[in-house]
Amino acid sequence: MKNLSFFQVGVIGVFIFLILIAALIFSGILPGFRPDSSSGGTVSMWGSIPSAVFKAALQNEKALSNANLVVNYTEIAPASFEARLVDALARGEGPDLIVMPHTLIYRHADKVQVLPNESLSARDYADTFVEEGDLFRIAAGSIALPLYVDPLVMYVNRDSYSAAGYPRTPELWEQFFSAGSGSSVLSTLTAIDARGTIEKSAIALGDFSTVSHAKDIMSLLLLQSGNAIVAQRATADGEYVSILGESGKPAGATALSVNFFTQFADRGKTTYTWSGALPKSKDAFSSGVLASYLGFASELPELKQKNPHLNFDMTLVPQRAVGPTLTFGNLYGVAVLARSRSQHAAFNAAGIITGKNFSGALAKTLSVASARRDALDTRSTDPLRSVIDRSALIARGWLDPNPAATETIFGTMVQSTIVGRAETTSAVSRAHQELTILLNRR
């Protein structure tokens, strides 16, 4: 081989560098976020993802080893995650990274290191992640990088619908009530005996004690009505406020959503399909009693295991005939803690873990959807995967100041309406006031 000139060597070197950068971009590691390639090392990470699943994904991710990064992952149960984290930070300890559910944003955003807009611009962020990922965005940058979304979907008993002569399941809420040329879906798929006991049900709504994910379903209905539940004021302090039903303003959309939900548990209405005397709606669906079940995509493996003989399918949640097309989703992201002593390495790891390859593979294992737009396959030949990924694109959430407390607030709002202790507008007004108090405790 002839000796190459200095200029030729330089050109070849630049060409190779560009190929490497292009490979990183197309592999999903550099969507606009530019990690420091010199920052390898070992970082610790906490999350509630099953340890075996996450560690297997880490071992299969070559980009981590190529970057000389080692991630030591610890699984912590969801019920104790927040308390363990707060306790560790109070002692000056804790991990470098956490898998952060969106329900922790409001109370703990001040404990994470913001990725500035100079490293990942608002434009690149929006082009890379699904819209619900905006919950992790603040004016200064990103408090976490979205990892995956667990969207609310509708599971349907195919045998129930087919036996009743329905070739398609409802795509709109209104289609549950529409009689068309015959009986409505609600009346056809619901069986009530002479004593008023529900033997089979078309759909489980109305009761907070036995409807699985009742608060999330109520959130879905509110969001579909155009009510964001919590909003940030366009003021200098940018405080967050409840918009369930502000004083002096009509709470119409919220009240209508509550009335829609509760009508299914009202014995005096033709829409009566559910009761607090029934088992949890997930169990009712698994046993074949319930024809339509609103649950999360991540429940798919459990439903298959609970009843291997159940012939069921998955669809998008029903939408309103008029209004935004959306579902509720639980969003999870990777955040670097402010007290981390290895922030450069931690941000490098976060960029790889939330990249197309890693998040896409992890999402399929967990039966959820990657939060990356380029990892979603809405035209997948797998009919269930296409529903999950399409649901992720329309998923929305809200900044919940205290999940346990808002569970009680929403439950009281609904149950007090069902038993007649309060008019719907009064129940909504009280819920608004209680949510406002929670937001002011920040």
Characteristic terms for this protein:
442 residues; alpha+beta; D-Maltodextrin-Binding Protein, domain 2; 2 domains; transmembrane; ABC transporter substrate-binding protein
Could you explain how this protein is built, in words?
Keywords: Membrane, Transmembrane, Transmembrane helix. InterPro entries: Bact_solute-bd_prot1 (IPR050490). This is ABC transporter substrate-binding protein. The chain crosses the membrane at residues 6-30. The chain has 442 residues and is α+β, with helices and mostly antiparallel strands. The protein has 2 domains: 32-149 and 330-388, D-Maltodextrin-Binding Protein, domain 2; 151-328 and 399-440, D-Maltodextrin-Binding Protein, domain 2, CATH 3.40.190.10. 40% of the residues lie in helices and 17% in strands. It is built from 18 helices and 16 strands. The protein has helices at 6-26, 51-60, 62-66, 78-90, 105-108, 122-128, 158-163, 174-177, 185-189, 214-224, 252-262, 281-286, 300-306, 343-353, 356-366, 383-393, 403-418, 424-440, and strands spanning 41-47, 69-75, 97-101, 115-116, 137-138, 141-142, 145-157, 191-192, 198-203, 230-232, 240-242, 290-296, 312-315, 327-336, 369-370, 395-396. Strands 1, 2, 3, 7, 8, 9, 12, 13, 14, 15 and 16 form an 11-stranded mixed beta sheet that branches. The chain has a 3-stranded antiparallel beta sheet with strand order 4-6-5, with no helix packed on it. Residues 4-28 have low confidence and may be disordered.
